Backbone:
């Protein structure tokens, strides 16, 4: 996931191409000659059917109103001074003004406008090539010699315009008018209208400019028109490109103060000049005359999707139709019969990704291979050479900001990430283009991950700078993952759970099948494999798997059936194939799921066993960490960084285990499939998870507290282990988890793991010293204090309902009125009796003081004054 979630609107983009032939850097008139520039040779001319005018509007060239009538083309333009370029929208330039010719074939048509950053101000959170805004719009004739520009919302529809309900939908869903343009003149044959767009594109607006949230986040105020200008406009048969420079006034945000309002980010330009300058490109394309046939979404296959509410006369309720996002892949007309005979054919238009020329040369082959790796998946859908990665041509007239190209953009950023967006038709889900964002610092993340998860097995990972061959393979796997997103695929965090844990140590099996069935999982690397297993890198790195091929087959297999026929065939295909191969299961995104099978960064069908193997490898790495991180002149920064990564990995293992406690299996099904959609994690598995926590985390893991390392990287302060323990206890005793366990017990009875059992099992492990009065070490004392804090946090205050130890300092009203406070109070009462009984038996003075203190704290919480 991208780190800058606040700017999630940047994550998709649209790029167009063409040679800029209208350019204005200075306000100097062009030479007094008439220049007509046609599209490049081979560019297809627009082929569109006349679009009906909006209801109540004439298709002729007449306007009503009091304004002066538009001039003729010859009267308005001086043939000795203007320039022109023909394309989807003909563009004219005269007297420092830009004019669009809006023909009748464009009026009423849905257009897609995407604004993308070309160059960003220093210190900004976005980079050249990333998306700034996106809107569907259309031109309409208005009164008083004007053309209106409306934004199209595409959230409600009625497909059949001949039915009465179509008019009802129109009456309830008027799209907003975003701009109005005076018609200056008619075009040459009076079939279109000339409008002045200079100030609209030069200025600031919400349709083809920067997203208002972004402006607020950067403290951008009004646009400075004297320092903003149109740099170029160029137009081809299917797209028109507008490149502008925009300067915004920006006041520095005070670094301190008591302002009650949220304050945005201050960029260096605001401090130096009180202004921020950006360069952006707005691409306008026509959406297809006939939208691509939709493929309806199914929760059992992980695709991004759009939703629209449809109203039909033939049904008794409004339908919410959800359809997946995908590229339009179709066999050539002459190959349709071959395709139907299951012969591989090339598509009419393959998916092509170019590599940003700003990418370091040595990484380009690996990025291209990451793209081409998907070819095997598209072969499952019947297409060969369906997706192709290419280097950007040298000395090419193509532009990365053009509409005809998808690309992997290389971004000079310290962000350790990459992301794969797409831009698609909101009416059908057809993907037009993708701009993958590739941050330079992704290599740091890959190096840290592979070091911590694979250095015990792969000697090449035992250093701070990997060889190019290893880093290239890591880059390739991430590129494949991000390309998968641009094909429409969501994360499948449950895929790795379909690999039995012992298979991850089986060299023959894992090198053939991979450690997860989907590269769309956050499975990273095979941390279960042990040094003695002799597993090669082929069994450590992710790859295109069985699920990925199956998902592409379901989403991209072309048919000439109706949408409804495809829906039924698709359902039968899912039921049949998952029944035969459970590894095709889609486990969802995992981020908000209560299903322990769907987690990020985990492996196998048993988190406890997998995490134990992972810890064995961490111990090997920790023992060798000073040697493996050593570089000449390093002042232990490497050791500190990788040790922190090691503790983080240990924390991941612990949280993978925690999710089993109170967990619920969620298995999406249709009525044709047997079994429940929701089942609790078996009691034995939950108790196994808690026992793992006692053995590996709550019983102090001294191996992690290596003094030879700690004495070189940190002064004696609270160690990271306490943070992990505190987080885990807080997670186990969270009110949502306990409330879920209560409901599971109510629904499933004795088969459930009850909260009473959980509390008892926790106390027996965390407070085991009470049984014999043995010495309680500092780490254990801290753990027990945290436990008491969290348990007290489950007691609502009688007067306010506040609970200082619970989430945000209070229990929700539902939890407050549940059995949770009663169980916590009863448990603390029992614990208090046990502590008081153990105090006389405890010989160690510090341990005795600790127990006395905890007894008083519990008593005060149970009996507040």
Residues:
């Amino acid at each position: 996931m991208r780190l800058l979630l606040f700017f999630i609107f940047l994550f998709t983009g649209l790029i167009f191409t063409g040679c800029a032939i209208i350019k204005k850097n200075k306000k100097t008139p062009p030479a007094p000659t008439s220049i007509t520039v046609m599209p490049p040779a081979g560019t297809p001319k627009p082929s569109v059917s006349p679009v009906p005018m909006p209801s109540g509007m004439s298709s002729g060239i007449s306007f009503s109103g009091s304004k002066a009538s538009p001039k003729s083309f010859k009267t308005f333009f001086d043939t000795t001074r203007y320039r022109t370029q023909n394309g989807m929208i003909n563009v004219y330039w005269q007297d420092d003004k830009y004019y669009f010719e809006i023909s009748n074939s464009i009026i009423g048509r849905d257009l897609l406008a995407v604004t993308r950053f070309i160059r960003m101000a220093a210190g900004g959170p976005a980079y050249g090539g990333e998306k700034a805004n996106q809107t569907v719009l259309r031109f309409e004739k208005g009164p008083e010699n004007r053309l209106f520009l409306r934004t199209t919302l595409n959230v409600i529809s009625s497909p059949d315009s001949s039915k009465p309900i179509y008019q009802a939908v129109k009456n309830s869903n008027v799209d907003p008018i975003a701009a109005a343009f005076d018609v200056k003149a008619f075009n040459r044959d009076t079939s279109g209208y000339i409008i002045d767009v200079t100030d609209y594109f030069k200025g600031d607006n919400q349709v083809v400019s920067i997203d208002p949230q972004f402006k607020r986040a950067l403290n951008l105020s009004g646009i400075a028109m004297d320092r903003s200008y149109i740099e170029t406009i160029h137009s081809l048969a299917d797209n028109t490109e507008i490149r502008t420079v925009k300067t915004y006034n920006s006041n520095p945000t005070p670094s301190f103060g008591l302002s009650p309002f949220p304050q945005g980010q201050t960029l260096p330009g605001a401090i130096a000049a009180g202004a921020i300058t950006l360069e952006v490109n707005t691409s306008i394309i026509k959406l297809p005359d006939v939208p691509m046939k939709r493929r309806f979404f199914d929760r059992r296959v992980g695709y991004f999707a759009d939703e629209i509410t449809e109203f039909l006369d033939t049904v008794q309720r409004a339908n919410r139709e959800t359809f997946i996002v995908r590229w339009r892949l179709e066999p050539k007309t002459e190959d349709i019969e071959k395709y139907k005979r299951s012969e591989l054919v090339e598509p009419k238009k393959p998916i092509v990704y170019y590599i940003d020329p700003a990418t370091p040369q040595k990484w380009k082959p690996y990025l291209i291979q990451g793209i081409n790796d998907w070819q095997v998946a598209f072969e499952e859908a019947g297409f060969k050479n369906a997706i192709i990665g290419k280097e950007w041509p040298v000395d090419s007239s193509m532009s990365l900001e053009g509409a005809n190209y998808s690309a992997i953009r290389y971004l000079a950023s310290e962000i350790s990430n990459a992301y794969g967006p797409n831009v698609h038709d909101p009416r059908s889900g057809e993907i037009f283009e993708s701009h993958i964002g590739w941050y330079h610092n992704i290599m740091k993340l890959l190096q840290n991950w592979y070091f911590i998860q694979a250095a015990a097995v792969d000697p090449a990972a035992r250093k701070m700078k990997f060889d190019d061959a290893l880093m290239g393979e890591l880059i390739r796997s991430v590129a494949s993952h991000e390309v998968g997103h641009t094909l429409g695929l969501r994360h499948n965090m449950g895929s790795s759970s379909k690999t039995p844990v012992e298979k991850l140590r089986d060299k023959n099996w894992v090198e053939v099948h991979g450690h997860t069935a989907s590269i769309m999982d956050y499975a990273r690397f095979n941390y279960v494999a042990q040094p003695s297993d002799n597993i090669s890198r082929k069994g450590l790195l992710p790859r295109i798997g069985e699920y990925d091929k199956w998902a592409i087959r379901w989403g991209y297999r072309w048919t000439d059936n109706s949408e409804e026929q495809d829906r039924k065939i698709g359902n039968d295909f899912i039921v049949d194939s998952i029944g035969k191969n459970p590894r095709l299961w889609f486990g969802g995104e995992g981020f908000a799921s209560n299903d322990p099978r769907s987690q990020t960064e985990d492996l196998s069908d048993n988190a406890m066993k997998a995490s134990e193997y992972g810890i064995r490898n961490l111990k090997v790495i920790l023992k060798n960490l000073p040697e493996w991180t050593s570089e000449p002149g390093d002042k232990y920064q490497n050791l500190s960084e990788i040790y922190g990564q090691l503790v983080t990995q240990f924390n991941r293992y612990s949280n993978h285990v925690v999710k089993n406690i109170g967990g619920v299996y969620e298995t999406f099904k249709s009525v044709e499939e047997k079994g429940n959609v929701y089942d609790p994690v078996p009691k034995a598995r939950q108790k196994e998870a808690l026992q793992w926590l006692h053995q590996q985390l709550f019983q102090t893991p001294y191996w992690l507290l290596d003094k030879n390392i700690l004495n070189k990287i940190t002064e004696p302060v609270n160690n990271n282990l306490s943070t992990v323990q505190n987080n885990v206890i807080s997670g186990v005793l969270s009110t949502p988890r306990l409330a879920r366990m209560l409901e599971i017990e109510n629904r499933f009875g004795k088969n459930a793991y009850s909260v009473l059992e959980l509390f008892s099992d926790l106390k027996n492990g965390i407070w085991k010293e009470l049984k014999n009065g043995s010495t309680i070490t500092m780490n254990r004392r801290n753990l027990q204090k945290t436990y008491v804090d969290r348990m007290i946090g489950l007691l609502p205050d009688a007067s306010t309902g506040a609970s200082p130890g619970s989430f945000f300092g209070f229990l929700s009203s539902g939890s407050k009125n549940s059995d949770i406070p009663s169980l916590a109070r009863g448990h603390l009462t029992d614990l208090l009796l046990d502590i008081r009984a153990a105090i006389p038996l405890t010989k160690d003075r510090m341990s005795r003081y600790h127990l006395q203190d905890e007894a008083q704290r519990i008593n005060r919480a149970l009996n507040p004054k």
